[in-house]
Design goal:
Elements: H1 2-13, H2 20-69, E1 80-86, E2 89-101, E3 116-128, E4 135-144, E5 156-163, E6 174-179, E7 202-208, E8 211-218, E9 222-224, E10 240-245, E11 250-259, E12 261-268, E13 284-289, E14 292-298, E15 303-305, E16 313-316, E17 352-356, E18 358-363, E19 371-376, E20 393-396, E21 404-409, E22 412-425, E23 428-433, E24 439-440, E25 446-449, E26 452-455
C-alpha cells in the first residue's frame, strides 16, 4: 500500500505534457494543411464558375449566330456590340459581319468582284472572371447565305462604301444614284429606295440595269478628301463618282468622307509675328498636304476641309502656279532648306492656320498716291528664287496718301507701282499709276536690286 501511494505521489510530481514549441509546430502544420485545402476548394469553385461562364458565353454566341442565320434581311446583319448580364456576370457580345463576293475576299461592304455570295459572321463573347480580373472570351464563326440570289440574273449591284479618316464606316450618309448625264450606256433610273449607309458605312443598289451611273453623297457637316472622280482635287460636301455596272457583277463606289474641319486661314510673318501690316485686297492661302493643294482660300475667312490626321501646311498664294511662295522650295548654297515655319495647324484652341509671308515697308512714289500694286517678275539669276510659272499681282488700296506703309507679300521677286484709285467697280480696282517707283526699305529678308524687290524666306539656322 505504501508503494502504491509512493507511485501516485511521483506521478503527481512529474511535469509531463506538450511544450510550447511542440504546440507551435503542430499549429503551423495544421495551418499549412488547412490553407492547401482552402486553396483547393477555391480553385474548384473558380473552375466551376469559369465553366459555367464559358457555357453561358457559348450559348450567347450561338444564339447570336442563330439570329443572323434566321434574319430575313441579311443586309441588316452588320457590326455591333451588345451587353448581357447572366448570373451576375456581365457579358459583351461583339458581332462582325463581312460580305463575301464570289470573286473577292471578305470585307465590310463586299466589294471585290462578282455577285454577293454570303456573309461571314463572327461572334466574340467576352467577360471578366470573378475575383481575378482577367478577361475571358469565346469566339464563334458562321457563313450565312441569303435565301435567294441577291441580284436577279443579267442585272448588277452597286456597292457604296463610305469611310472616315480613321478607316471606320461613316453611317447615316444619304446616297443618290442616277444614270450618268453625259453617257449613260443603257442605264435607267433606279426606282427602289436606297438606304443611308449602315454602321459599317455601306449601302447597296440591287437589280440595277447595266450601264454607267453617277453616285453622289450628302451628309450635313461632312466633306470628302478630294479623291472622288467627280470632284477630283477639290474637297466638297457632295462628292460624286461614276461606276459602270455589268450584268451579274458588283460595282463599287468608294469614298473617304468625314466631319469637316473648320479652319481660318491667315497671313503672318513668322519672324515678326506681332508686327501689324496691311494685307492686299486678295490674300489667298493654299493648304498643302503632301503633293496636293487645296484652295486657295481667302485669309480672314473660314473654310471647310477634310480632317486629315497629319494636317496641312499653309502656303500664301497659289504654290502650284508660283513655287516662290512656298519656303520649302528655297534652298541654301549647300542645298539645305532653311525656311521659317508657321505654327502647327490649327492653332491650339482656335481654327487658325497661318501661312508665312514677308512684311516690308514701302514709301509711295507720289504725294497723292493711295494705292500700290506688287507683281511677281522673273527673279534675278542666282538669287535663289525658284520663280513663278504664272505671274501674280497683289493690290493694296486705301493707303495714306503719299505715305509710308507696312505691307505683307508672299515670298518671291516683285516689281512695285503706286498710284491713285480712279474707280472700283465689281471689286475691280482701277489705278492711275505715278511716274516714279515706290521706295522699299531694306531689311532682313528684303533686298532691292534695281526695280526688283526680293522677299527671301531663308534665314541662318
Amino acid at each position: 500500500m505504501q508503494r502504491l501511494s509512493t507511485l501516485v505521489d511521483e506521478a503527481r510530481n512529474r511535469d509531463d505534457g506538450f511544450s510550447i514549441i511542440e504546440v507551435l509546430v503542430a499549429m503551423t502544420v495544421f495551418a499549412m494543411i488547412a490553407a492547401g485545402v482552402a486553396m483547393g476548394i477555391a480553385s474548384s469553385l473558380y473552375l466551376a464558375h469559369g465553366s459555367r461562364s464559358r457555357e453561358v458565353a457559348i450559348n450567347l454566341a450561338q444564339d447570336a449566330i442563330d439570329r443572323a442565320r434566321t434574319s430575313t434581311n441579311l443586309f441588316g446583319v452588320v457590326d455591333g456590340t451588345s451587353q448581357r448580364t447572366v448570373g451576375g456576370v456581365d457579358y459583351s457580345i461583339t458581332q462582325t459581319a463581312r460580305w463575301v463576293a464570289t470573286a473577292g475576299a471578305a470585307n465590310a461592304c463586299g466589294a471585290g468582284g462578282g455577285p454577293l455570295a454570303y456573309k461571314r459572321v463572327s461572334m466574340t463573347v467576352s467577360w471578366t472572371a470573378g475575383g481575378r480580373g482577367d478577361g475571358q472570351s469565346v469566339s464563334m464563326n458562321s457563313l450565312v447565305a441569303p435565301p435567294t440570289s441577291v441580284t436577279a440574273p443579267n442585272l448588277g449591284t452597286i456597292i457604296v462604301a463610305v469611310s472616315r479618316v480613321d478607316g471606320s464606316g461613316n453611317s447615316g450618309v444619304s446616297v443618290g444614284i442616277s444614270p450618268n448625264r453625259t453617257n449613260p450606256n443603257g442605264a435607267t433610273a433606279i426606282t427602289s429606295t436606297i438606304a443611308a449607309t449602315d454602321v459599317t458605312g455601306c449601302t447597296y443598289a440591287l437589280n440595277v440595269k447595266p450601264g454607267s451611273y453617277d453616285v453622289t453623297l450628302s451628309k450635313s457637316g461632312n466633306i470628302d478628301d478630294g479623291t472622288s472622280s467627280g470632284s477630283l482635287g477639290a474637297q466638297t460636301g457632295t462628292p460624286s463618282t461614276t461606276v459602270r455596272v455589268q450584268a451579274n457583277q458588283t460595282s463599287s463606289a468608294t469614298f473617304n468622307y468625314d466631319d469637316a474641319l473648320t479652319v481660318a486661314p491667315q497671313w503672318i510673318d513668322p519672324n515678326a509675328s506681332t508686327t501689324a501690316f496691311t494685307a492686299p485686297s486678295s490674300a489667298p492661302v493654299s493648304l498643302r498636304r503632301k503633293t496636293a493643294d487645296f484652295g486657295p482660300y481667302a485669309a480672314g475667312t473660314t473654310a471647310q476641309v477634310f480632317p486629315f490626321t497629319d494636317g496641312y501646311k499653309a502656303v500664301a498664294g497659289t504654290p502650284a502656279a508660283c513655287a516662290s511662295t512656298d519656303p520649302e522650295n528655297w534652298t541654301t548654297a549647300n542645298g539645305a532648306s532653311v525656311a521659317p515655319r508657321g505654327v502647327g495647324q490649327p492653332l491650339v484652341g482656335t481654327n487658325a492656320v497661318r501661312a508665312p509671308v514677308q512684311i516690308l515697308t514701302v514709301k509711295l512714289a507720289g504725294n497723292g498716291d493711295n494705292a500700290l500694286t506688287a507683281t511677281t517678275t522673273a527673279p534675278t539669276p542666282n538669287s535663289g528664287d525658284p520663280g513663278c510659272a504664272t505671274a501674280a499681282s497683289y493690290t493694296f488700296s486705301g493707303l495714306p496718301a503719299g505715305g509710308t506703309v507696312t505691307i505683307a507679300l508672299p515670298y518671291g521677286t516683285y516689281t512695285l507701282q503706286s498710284g491713285s484709285v480712279t474707280r472700283i467697280l465689281g471689286g475691280v480696282i482701277t489705278i492711275s499709276y505715278s511716274g516714279g517707283a515706290p521706295t522699299v526699305s531694306p531689311a532682313v529678308g528684303v533686298s532691292v536690286s534695281g526695280n526688283k524687290v526680293l522677299l527671301d524666306p531663308r534665314r541662318a539656322p
